[in-house]
Amino acid sequence: MSTLATSEGSLQQPNANSVASAVWPRISLVTPVFNSAKYIEQTIRSVLSQNYPNLEYFIVDGGSTDGTIDIIRKYESQITGWISEPDNGMYDALNKGFARTTGEIMGWISATDQYHVGGLSVVGSVFRDLPEVEWITGRATGFNEEGMTTVVLDIPHWSRLRFLAGANRYIQQESTFWRRSLWERAGSRVDSSRRYAADFELWVRFFRYARLYPVDALIGGFRAHGDSLGLQDMDRCHRIQQEMIEDELKNTPGAAWLRSFRWLSRSASRIPGVRGLWQRLVMNNLYRMPGSDWPPVIEHRENVWAIRR
Questions:
Q1: What is the 3-state secondary structure (H, E, C) of 198-217?
Q2: Is the CB of residue 297 less than 8 Å from the CB of residue 214?
Q3: For the chain, how far is it from start to end, CA to CA, in angstroms?
Q4: Domain at 202, CATH number
């Protein structure tokens, strides 16, 4: 297989003199891509059409041969930069991209997914208005293969212990952003040794240091398509996630009761007549039942974002 030399687009400097960019925190956004000519243009357009005034957008291509690079070149004057070179997968590409960014706020959008109109403005204004918030996620949404919004779910709720208990393992990456200070405390990396579920492992580390605040807004969404690694092998992803949680619990003081609960949950899931009952009566209620461990919802009130008390 041929190896492409590194190709880096010219840097586009933010408009530091504009009042708009001065009041909006810089968002560093990375798109990892490999042979995704079918979708990458829609993803790029969904980013650029945000017209976010202080955006740092970097694309990392793994050496595509299907026309992806030609599409990136069409937009290189409108993005911060891009490279194309062999890598060790999506998570390696993300680390390369984030290492080239400087923004206070961070996130990534895969080459098949999209943002909703105004999604980045939601992100920037939430972090601007609420300096105590370090990590957010919006309503989980989904696109079909043609790019139409077909799924909008209820406002999510998260806590570290419930997450580790298995009450809900799905934090939608496309709608999730964080401060660089949290990224640095959690190790400044995505685990590039993994092919699956490294975003889940990153969330496990983030939970050690910060609460995940739900935002009552649409930010981004996942496109359902046949080439998705996660959708191709959900059972394998779940097994990997379970292993990650077990590793985390080994280093979590006072987690013996949580390990016992997880053992009981696994045992119940193996019994056909009990599995569904356990899910409905225990796991669903564990996720939905309000508690002091729930971060309050962030919502828009009178032109500013506020934490619902």
A1: HHHHHHHHHCCCCCCEEECC
A2: yes
A3: 57
A4: 3.90.550.10
Residue 169, Cβ neighbours under 10 Å: how many? 17
Domain that residue 210 falls in: 19-252
Q: 220 and 271 in one domain?
A: no
Determine how β-strand 55-61 pairs with β-strand 81-84: parallel
What distances in angstroms separate CA 250 from CA 37, 75, 237, 255, one per listed residue? 43, 47, 20, 8
Q: Structure pTM? A: 0.90
State whether 37 and 178 are in the same domain.
yes
Helix ranges, the chain (H):
19-23, 40-48, 68-74, 90-98, 119-129, 160-165, 180-185, 198-206, 229-232, 234-250, 256-269, 272-278, 284-288
Residue 192 lies in a domain: yes
* One domain, residues 185 and 280: no
- Domain membership flag for residue 64: yes
Same domain? For 165 and 265 the reply is no
139 and 277 both lie in a single domain? no
Q: Are residues 146 and 279 in the same domain?
A: no
Task: For residue 215, give every residue at least 6 positions away whose Cβ sits within 8 Å of its Cβ, in sequence order, or none.
Answer: 122, 126, 136, 137, 138, 139, 297, 298, 299, 305
What average pLDDT does range 293-297 have in this prediction? 92
Distance between CA atoms of 30 and 112, rounded to whole angstroms?
13
Residue written as tokens 């030399």?
5
113-171: per-residue pLDDT in tens? 999 999 999 999 999 999 999 999 999 999 998 889 999 999 988 899 999 998 888 89
Instruction: Give the three-state DSSP class for 84.
Output: strand
Phi, psi dihedrals of residue 186, rounded to the nearest 5°: -90, 10
One domain for residues 121 and 174: yes
* 11 burial level (CB within 10 Å; 0-12, 13-18, 19+): exposed
Domain count for the chain, please give it: 2
